[in-house]
Design goal:
The complex is a heterodimer of chains A (307) and B (422). Chain A has 307 residues and is an all-alpha fold. Chain A contains 15 helices and two strands. In chain B, helix 7 packs parallel to helix 9. The chains are: A mainly alpha (307), B alpha/beta (422). At the A-B interface, helix 14 of A face helix 3, helix 4, helix 10, helix 15 and helix 16 of B. Chain A: Belongs to the binding-protein-dependent transport system permease family.
């Protein structure tokens, strides 16, 4: 009753900030976020200015940042990550968009079944599917044997022992895993487009590809932006697939010639495989943060609403 | 009536667990151990625990089996965070990483210099766990290497077991080409992402990625250069079947696909697990590098036990290791016969199990051979950055296989290693 009383008196706008009940309701959530999100982020920022080995760390404002610029492994990891990003994200999103458009057509039979089949990979566990891919793509695995028996290739493709093919394999794997996931977003958005718009265009004589490029795609723009940003973040954080398909445990490289070394795998190596240097690993993790922020800004800019 | 059962059952469970806690509090002598191979060091540690428990009934053992990478990741996280509750009392660490842990986590491991008589162990195992005069490990297994070969395949290609003795690498590749031509079997399985073979060859040439003082030793390292040249020859000759990762590599010989395996003695158990291949295997010394001073013996892997200083039962843990691993010669006979573990306690080698002829290998006295080769392994300082340089070396192997220049590879390794070891 007291709060009701005070609410009548104070200005309603300011009152929001002094409402004890409101704060009590959000307190558990805020507390959890503070402990498990805000504190680790701030602490990792603090850690990124520490350098040394294992427990013998000391503060140094510039050491890690200078090391970033003279680190060939970081350069390679950035290069690999960018290749995966530039090749895989567009391929996957275009594929997802085409599949969604096709499955939106009422004339296609078994739509539910096909939709489920394409979506199913992204329900599978990252590690489980990586291990399966690994066993399928080894030198005398299922894929090479099938291709050889069909006469499509004359000698086995070195999926895991050649730098070029190992990247191809990673791209195939993540495309298989995530295309269905993005397709679902497009399908949902397609169903929100008013059918009468398409019908009007059809009556006006706009051909099918014209309706796709000048009606469907522009109206899907917000969803395309959303899937581009989430896929970018996902690709920049690529870890499970590379770690499970490409890395052998015994002090080896991430893929032949480190051809599949991504930023996340490099951070893992710095922390757990190499001389434990949590400070430098934290600095490299901020490279991902900055890269994601820059790329997302770029994408927001490219897909902005023009008025 | 029925409703009353649940609270009563709960009360019973609570009482039961309370008395259980009381019991463990009274004993409180459980030693937790982390290690990684269920057929090898896990089984061996359980055996050691069973022997110790006979004379010390108040001590119980909890041997936890992880993958090796997980043991290392959990250990590093626990040590850095300072949350020592989650750490075990005894942990197994691979020898390549020993100095890294001892030097970057000072005070976290318990020195045993005062308790254990280290003069009884192979000197190279003691040296690699010693920092500033204190030794921290209970030396465990050795990774002395051998050349395991399929007698039936090489005989089918027109060679005899005598041809497999005292090989040079060039001769080994020559035999491999003939075997591949006549039998269709590759000579060996090789993972081009893994530098293990390079380490074997380099150590047999008496050098390592680092000098005795711990400085980087790449561009002037004759053994490393010869090793890279040999690996390039093997890759280019086509005698190697490419493998991707550990289990795929193991599969190349357990499936009966390849004609030979060059690796550490700890693989013996895996080779012997292929029962249908009994009597088909022989063991010879590894081929020799073509540089002065190179020997036909090397080392790959091997590990030692460490007691954590944070442990509340560390005196029991040290006593346990010293009683069993430091003194019990019979125990070493048991683990040699059972798991194929060649320990580094020198007097264990005079025991009966080492003199036994192994029927799986057609009656060869392979353990005596391994013990002899062990004495020839060049002693080295593995330094604290072996994993970093190893990753640099591994990334240069695929270009070498395609005919790349060895000098370019050495320069690239040097550059990548320099930046990684700061």
């Amino acid at each position: 009753m007291r709060t009701r009383h005070s609410m009548d008196k104070a200005s309603p706008r300011l009152n929001r900030y002094f409402d004890v009940n409101g704060w009590l309701f959000v307190a558990p959530a805020v507390l959890l976020i503070a402990v498990f999100m805000v504190y680790p982020i701030l602490y990792s920022l603090w850690m990124s200015f520490q350098t040394g080995r294992g427990m013998k760390m000391h503060f140094d404002l510039t050491a890690n940042i200078l090391r970033l610029f003279s680190d060939p492994m970081l350069g390679l990891a950035l290069y690999n990550t960018m290749i995966f990003f530039i090749v895989q994200v567009p391929v996957m999103l275009i594929l997802a968009l085409l599949l969604a458009t096709m499955l939106d057509d009422k004339r296609v039979r078994f739509r539910g079944l096909i939709r489920t089949a394409i979506f199913l990979p992204c329900v599978s566990s990252l590690v489980a599917y990586s291990v399966l891919f690994k066993s399928m793509f080894v030198q005398d695995g299922l894929v090479n044997t099938t291709l050889l028996d069909l006469g499509l290739i004359s000698s086995p493709i070195p999926w895991m022992t050649d730098p070029f093919w190992s990247r191809v394999l990673i791209i195939i794997a993540i495309t298989w895993r995530w295309t269905g996931y993005n397709m679902i977003f497009y399908l949902a958005a397609l169903q929100n487009i008013d059918k009468s718009i398409h019908e009007a265009a059809r009556i006006d004589g706009v051909p099918a590809y014209g309706r796709f490029f000048f009606l469907t795609v522009p109206m899907l723009k917000p969803v395309i932006l959303f899937t581009t940003v989430t896929s970018t973040i996902g690709t920049l954080q690529l870890f499970d697939e590379v770690r499970n398909i490409m890395t052998s445990d015994a002090g080896g490289a991430a893929g032949p010639s480190n051809s599949a070394l991504t930023l996340s795998v490099y951070i893992y190596n710095l922390t757990f495989k190499f001389m434990p240097n949590f400070g430098y690993a934290a600095t490299v993790s901020y490279v991902i943060v900055i890269a994601v922020a820059l790329l997302s800004l770029l994408q927001f800019y490219a897909l902005r609403e023009r008025t | 009536m029925k409703k009353a059962i649940l609270p009563r059952a709960l009360a019973a469970i609570a009482l039961g667990s309370a008395s259980l806690f009381a019991m463990t509090a009274a004993q409180a002598k459980e030693i937790t151990i982390w290690c990684w191979d269920p057929n090898f060091n896990v089984a061996i540690m359980k055996e050691a625990g069973a022997i110790y428990a006979k004379t010390h009934p108040d001590v119980t053992f909890n041997v936890v089996d992880f993958a090796k990478a997980d043991v290392e990741a959990k250990l590093q996280t626990g040590l850095v965070s300072g949350v020592t509750d989650s750490l075990p009392d005894i942990v197994l660490i691979e020898d390549y990483g020993a100095q890294k842990y001892l030097q970057s986590f000072p005070g976290s491991f318990e020195p045993m210099t005062g308790t254990v008589d280290y003069s009884k162990f192979a000197p190279y195992k003691v040296a690699l766990a010693t920092v500033e005069g204190e030794t921290y490990s209970m030396p465990f297994d050795s990774g002395v290497t051998g050349l395991y070969y399929r007698k039936d395949y090489i005989e089918a290609a027109g060679f005899t077991p005598a041809d497999m003795q005292n090989l040079t690498w060039d001769r080994y590749i020559e035999i491999g080409k003939t075997v591949l031509e006549k039998t269709g079997h590759h000579m060996l399985g090789l993972d081009p992402n893994d530098a293990g073979m390079i380490r074997i060859m380099m150590q047999s040439g008496g050098e390592w990625y680092f000098t005795e003082d711990g400085d980087l030793n790449i561009s002037g390292n004759a053994a490393l250069k010869a090793a890279l040249e040999t690996e390039a020859k093997i890759l280019q000759s086509g005698i190697a079947k490419p493998a991707a990762g550990w289990s795929n590599w193991v599969g190349t010989f357990t499936s009966g696909d390849v004609a030979s395996v060059i690796t550490g003695v700890w693989i013996t158990g895996t080779v012997k697990a292929t029962l249908d291949q009994e009597n088909k295997w022989g063991v010879a010394p590894i081929p020799t590098l073509d540089i002065p001073g190179a020997v036909a013996a090397s080392n790959l892997g091997g590990s030692s036990w460490y007691v954590l200083s944070s442990s509340d039962v560390k005196s029991e843990a040290v006593d346990f290791l010293n009683e069993i691993y430091g003194k019990d010669v019979d125990f070493y006979q048991k683990i040699l016969t059972g798991q194929g573990a060649v320990g580094s306690l020198m007097e264990a080698r005079n025991g009966p199990a080492y003199a036994v002829a192994d029927p799986f290998f057609g009656g060869e006295k392979i353990w005596q051979n391994f013990a002899d080769w062990l004495a020839m392994v060049p002693s080295l300082n593995y330094g604290i950055f072996t994993n970093e340089v190893d990753a640099a070396v591994a990334s240069q192997l695929p270009p070498l296989g395609k005919g790349g220049s060895v000098d370019d590879a050495l320069a690239a390794i040097e550059a990548q290693a320099r930046s990684a070891i700061q």
